[in-house]
Protein 1
Amino acid sequence: METQSTSSGLSGPKDRPAVLKVALLSFFTRWGPLVILLLLCAVIGLIQPRFLTFSNIINVLHRSATLLIVAMGMTFVILTAGIDLSVGGVMGLAGAVLVGASRLPVVEHFALAAALLLGAAVGCGNAFMVTRFRMAPFVVTLATMAITRSITWVYTGGNPLTGVPSYVAFLGRGHVGPFPPAILLALVLFLILGVLLQKTRFGTYTYGIGANNEAARRFGVDVRRHLLKVYALSGALAAVAGVIISARLNSAYPNTGEDYELMAIAAVIVGGSNLFGGEGRLIGTLFGVLIIEVIRNGLNLIGINVFWHKALLGFIILIAVISRTLASRES
Amino acid sequence: MAATQFAASFDGEQENMYQRDETTELTVRNHRADLLVEMQDICKSFGGVRALNNITFSIHRGEILALVGDNGAGKSTLIKVLAGALIRDHGDMIIEGEMVKTHTPRSAREQGIETVYQDLALFDQLDVTTNFYFGREITTKLGLLDKREMSRNVKLFLEEFGIVIKSVSQRVGTLSGGQRHSIAIGRAVYVNRNPKLIILDEPTAGLGVEQSRNVLQLIRELKKRKLAVILISHNMDHVLAVSERILVLRSGKLVAEKRTEATNVESLLQAMLGKGNEDAK
């Protein structure tokens, strides 16, 4: 017995154009971000050769590191069909807690741990509200964003708090060979989280919950508990990014992390992840992050008004979403 | 109801609540050795609504039993009780001769009962292998997914059941309707280490002629492997094509039990709709 039929009902020479169209769209959805990135680098490099110098590349990578760390956490959340708008607020608050805790005797040794735990705790709080009260993640994390941002501004009095712990300062201003530690940390986290997502049950269930929440539950996944872990991860990673920025500036600024939630979401979407969950890869997010930073850096070097950066990014987001929609429809 | 009372009903000494034709009586008596599940006087209410009213039936190993009835007849409620998704208010459930007190989806699976609901519970964005193993992945000593082993096992299984797809790395969402149904049924058989009874809720819903034919053939393959199948379907042609015995529910009651070879669509419809002399007391 054979249960067979072509998945798209296509067969024969007449259908080759349609098959080619689907293949091209699928290729673009998967590798389009890399193609766009390489094109951008080529174009900007041609216009402004300084773009392709080693020091500038390191500069781009350094700026990309913190966004990548936040965006990786956002990828996990979006894969579950959720969203986390609180990451920017967590970044600011984590920096403030890091500096604030470092001023207290005894506690100063645990300032970094306190900042990271705070991020994870905010994430857990988000997940609790989403799962226990069945609230939309957009609404919950929007509220958390406002709360964390407000607390940061009140705590800092609107002024930067100076003095990160010495054991953290290296993270922001040190070097490992030619590379800032932030780049290496982002790379290490990328590799670890990549394995977690692609090679473990945790990753499979993350995808599964986004693809079909009810089915995941039927097959024994404790969805509530899993989302708790995913949002905690996002919060913790946002805290890491906040710590890095504070270490770089040796200060916690109340507006640290502003716009990061939108940039992180943009990076994830441009990288090919499905905003409705179940599809996406960290490598895509990496490409998305690099596209964002290359545009920003390139426009600056060329001398174009940097405020055009968001418009250009907006176009790229539209292209990414349209190609994904077309690819899904055709296939 | 005690086992002796249940046995007496087969001797015809006890007035039956529903009509059972002679061939069915003989068949059931001969198959007692292969008895897999017995449901006795099952009742289930939702508030003031009696969804199941003293349902009694049995199913044997390797048997394909169809469950038909109009919307609201109680079919879905009955299979959910059987699958452990709902707790019965009253009645006994006996699986392989053992009385079952507490029945949950997990205990149902442990006893070899798997259910494929109408929504198929597939993960469209994930590949066939991941769908097959979701929740029961094989891992290496390091705790990482052993995708190669899982893919290999799934390929062998699909070949054995004659389910042809391009690749087990293919996303399930890109498969045809018939392939998706086949994958869902195959998965139900595959993931259970000791499958005995597969419950299929509208397995051919929304499928074309050829795809439906393939799914029905797959159901026959299950029978060849001595798996019992309970099939819910609104499609009488499919029911008659593949089942051996048909239970008719109406308003939560079991109103008829027929041998497939001894009935037809008209007779089934009459029983479902309560026309003619089919009504039980």
Note: The first strand of chain B starts at residue 19 and ends at 20.
Protein 2
Amino acid sequence: MKRYLFVLRKPAHSGAYLQEMLDIILITAAFDQSVSILWLDDAVFSLKNQQQPERLTLKDTAAVMQSLSIYDVTELYIETESLQEYGLMAEDLCLPVQTLPRKAISEFMRGFDVVFAG
Amino acid sequence: MKFAIQINSSPYHSNAGLTAYQFIRSVLNAQHEIVRIFFYHEGVYHAFKYATPPDDEIQITKRWSELARDHQIDLVVCISAAQRRGLLHSDEAHRQGKQDNDVADGFRIAGLGQLVEATLLADRFIVFG
């Protein structure tokens, strides 16, 4: 088993990027690998609660993310500064995620065998 | 050392694919092994057989086909990413009531499991684009 980290850096609905990243995340989890996700920069918006993508005929990626725990993907991290820069707080998000300060990110990434750069 | 490569950017969106190609040539020259090259997101545009750039520009799809032929490199295009963008091989086109095979020589269409398997087999996994 390898330890995988998926780094998400783009908001939801920037093309099919997030849908396709979620596809790899779920497949990797289905291979019984250890899967963690880190939200950085604009990607924090993909976790914003109360999204209504159906009204714009977009895929409900937040709903897919809420199903991650079914696949045992529960190691979820978000960069504190990315949240602060967009004026968001933990209660604005649709998933329980752990916050990591920017200065801890590079050391955190060293703990993984495979990093999918987003 | 064994390398798995993922390419996410299309030929004309950025030079990431070309950089990946040059990196892979260097890996092979240094006697390392390429486990697989996986084309995902907009990277699937590298595999379109009928891309026809002007003669004085690099023919990147042809370069990939030659690389696969000369070094037995496994070029895999993600099936769901490919179908979204209109890249179908003949079996799938026929199944969908469509025509033709759009996939360039040396590429094959397969699922994301092939990407995960490549990262499990490789010592290093590098994402371009």
Note: The longest strand of chain A covers residues 3-8.
